[in-house]
Amino acid sequence: MFDALVSEDLRDFSEEELDKLFVVHEEGIKQFLGRIPLGCIYATFLSGLYVEMEKIVGRAARGLIINASKNRGKIAGNAIRRRYEKKYGEMSVERAKMVARNMLVIWGKCFGWGKMSFKVNDTEFWLEVEDSLEATGFLKLKEKPKGPVCWMLLGYSWGLLEGLFNRKFEGEEVECKAVGGEKCRFVFRTI
């Protein structure tokens, strides 16, 4: 499983192929890479949670969710990088780009977070998401958010990049379908 994550371009794999490779199904329990439990949630549950958090703590809810997601993404990125380096040696920038893209493809196809595409140059990483789970939830609730709402996806992707590349990034959701965008778009810039 891990070898496929770090050595193959997974963009053209179907949802079924990726699920067979990375998700173990045993007695009602799903695990990513055979050890990380997975669970499904309704998009409206997640967006409703955000709405309720904002009622309690105000706009700070956004920062709390982004920061917590970023920390978890960074832990995942660090773990992948360390495991790769233990087995294969230093992870190159090109390999880190491929692994980041693969993780996002898996998040989109296996975990239902939306159809994802990833563009990279020397200083910026662009993530585009069609039908983001977070934005879709707000559209279904008919809630009009004050700004972009893909907080978990922003934070997790941001942290994942920092962990894989072992350097700091700035991250931002620059377009969100929940507030009228065509898609949800994110940019991450190296600092």
Quick structural gist:
Helices cover 52% and strands 20% of the residues. The protein is built from 7 helices and 7 strands, in the order H-H-E-E-E-H-H-H-E-E-H-H-E-E.
CATH topology: Muramoyl-pentapeptide Carboxypeptidase, domain 2
The computed structural class is alpha+beta
Between the first and last Cα atoms, what is the distance in angstroms? 32 Å
Number of strands: 7
Strand adjacency order, main sheet:
4-5-7-6
User: Helix content range of the residues, please?
Assistant: 40-55%
CATH level 4 superfamily: Trafficking protein particle complex subunit 3
Number of helices: 7
Question: Which CATH-level-2 architecture?
Answer: 2-Layer Sandwich
What are the segments in which pLDDT stays under 50 over at least 5 consecutive residues?
Answer: none
Question: What's the layout of helices and strands?
Answer:
Elements lengths: L1 H6 L7 H8 E4 L2 E4 L3 E3 L4 H15 L2 H29 L4 H17 L5 E6 L3 E7 L2 H9 L9 H15 L3 E7 L8 E7 L1
Helix pairs in contact: 3-6, 4-7, 5-7
